[in-house]
Amino acid sequence: MTGSITSIRQARNTHEAEGDQSSHALPYALAATTLEHAETHIRFQDIGKTYSGEQGPVRALHGIDLVVRKGEIFGIIGRSGAGKSSLLRTINRLEQPSEGQVLIDGEDIGRYGTSELVALRRRIGMIFQHFNLLSAKTVRQNVELPLKVAGVPRQERQQKVASLLKLVGLENKHDAYPAQLSGGQKQRVGIARALVHDPDILLCDEATSALDPETTQAILALLRDINRSLGLTIVLITHEMEVIREICDRVVVLECGAIVEQGPVWRVFGDPHHDVTRTLLSPLQQTLSDDLKAHLLTQPLRQNDALLLELRLNGTNSREPDLGLLFSALGGQLTLVKSAIQRLQGRTVGHLLVSIRHSPHAQEELIKRARRIFDDVEVLGYVAAD
Amino acid sequence: MSLLIDRLWQGLLDTLLMVGVSSLIALIAGIPLAVFLVTSGKGGMFEAVRLNRLIGSIVNLFRSIPFLILMVALIPFTRLIVGTTYGVWAAVVPLAIAATPFFARIAEVSLREVDQGLIEAAQAMGCRRRHIVWHVLLPEALPGIISGFTITLVTMINSSAMAGAIGAGGLGDLAYRYGYQRFDFMVMLIVIIGLVLLVTLIQLGGDKLAKAMNHRT
Lengths: 386, 217
Ligand SMILES: Nc1ncnc2c1ncn2[C@@H]1O[C@H](COP(=O)(O)OP(=O)(O)OP(=O)(O)O)[C@@H](O)[C@H]1O
Ligand SMILES: [Mg+2]
What we know:
- By secondary structure, chain A is of the alpha/beta class.
- Helix content of chain A is 36%, strand content 29%.
- Chain A has two domains: 3-283, P-loop containing nucleotide triphosphate hydrolases (Rossmann fold); 290-383, ACT domain (Alpha-Beta Plaits, 2-Layer Sandwich).
- Chain A contains 15 helices and 15 strands.
- Chain A is elongated, with a radius of gyration of 24 Å.
- Chain B has helices at residues 2-39, 49-64, 67-73, 75-82, 88-112, 116-124, 129-168, 171-181, 185-213.
- The chains are: A alpha/beta, B mainly alpha.
- At the A-B interface, helix 5, strand 6 and helix 6 of A face helix 6 and helix 7 of B.
- The complex binds adenosine-5'-triphosphate and magnesium ion.
């Protein structure tokens, strides 16, 4: 997991050479915190969406109040059918809300007529899970199309297309047809096409879901790079929690058409409050291994049975898992059973499982001492000495 | 003998003319018709449900009348348009009227197969409806439309032979007069071989073109 973060950083570095060094040089955490004061870009006001389905109306969204800030990467997660796509698609009015308003730069886009809507959509790029490239057009023609329909002169179009294909790393594929490209290359074309009007918002609906892990990393690196260098606001949907963890600043969790949780990624991922969030995150969360679970006792049978503790860091107090401190606080024979500590946006979050044997302290005292170092401490049980 | 060859040649030209002109009309009228049928349904880009249903029924009506009956029924209309009910140009009228809905329905199928996601992507990038028709629907459906047009051409050769039998000229007329009325097996055979060659040629050409236009794989 740290490996993948490094890889995305490295991939970014290769792009950074030509970019604005000062903004790129910002450490991740600093960049994330500066955004907290960024202005509102997209505001959802009490959004509701009801579809008329075959078996009566389907309420896909209700009471959504949400703000996306300028320049941030905002993630939307939730189970299948939770309403993620419906919400995202209200931003460029591919879906018209049944209730409420979407404000972009303070303007109610629901009031736009056709021409204003077309102009708005040119300021919002969108990429899709299945790329949605035109099979009858070459890479160049695909990227060029949004400019062509906007009446941009040929010369200008060609320059723009060439520079974008360079940006996404497809300089030598101008005349290929989409069918001749790999999934990752297709998505790069999709990104180039989405950026061709220099939009200030990019919407991604499961943009990496059809890609293998390595390609996903490369595409995420590209998105992060674009976000930084162009100052683009990105709203993305994904069911891959690693994607959120690696590139999002903030995240919202939807369930049955409503918001159940939202906040900075370190907060939501480090200390999920809602069951839905926990379930979604479970692939990332390392729990007790089965063999340990089977041997776990609720009460100690013998004097030297080990106490199993879960020590959590939720990032709020900027604590570090200081093992030396922990050892001197708890004493006895301290063993690390499992570690799931990670750094998210410059904050250390996650948990440690440790077992303690022969400690000079009583259990309550142990917990009290551990609480001084960790945000939360829980007794999981006892493991019998062999 | 040379008279026969002249007649055969003339017959071939007449057939090509009838089929060519009526299919061209079908192409020009059928594509907009197909686009309309696809885009004017419920939830479509140019939603007009009632008109869609009306046009759809008219298309079905013409599709369900056998060509021979349609031809006879259209005689007054044909006379009105071309001034005669005899000859190549008189046959073009019922042929075009039969070919247009036939081709429109086939083209409609190809247009419907265009991925909804592509239309959405086009909307998201700021395409207006006419752009979507021109840059997305038609190019994406083109291979299917070409195949459909090939089928239409072959079907029109078939129908034109029928028209020939009631005095429109062309290969059908020859086969009928020489083969049926005079039992000249030779002429019949030549006509059959000629038709087989013509159909094969059209089919091969159409397949090749459709393949060249298909970049999906
Ligand atoms: N066009 C539509 N007509 C009727 N119902 C719809 C339509 N689009 C979505 N829905 C319903 O609205 C609800 C939310 O759908 P939505 O596509 O927003 O979910 P999602 O969170 O994106 O799911 P997934 O992760 O599967 O993409 C679902 O119950 C879905 O069946
Ligand atoms: Mg979805």
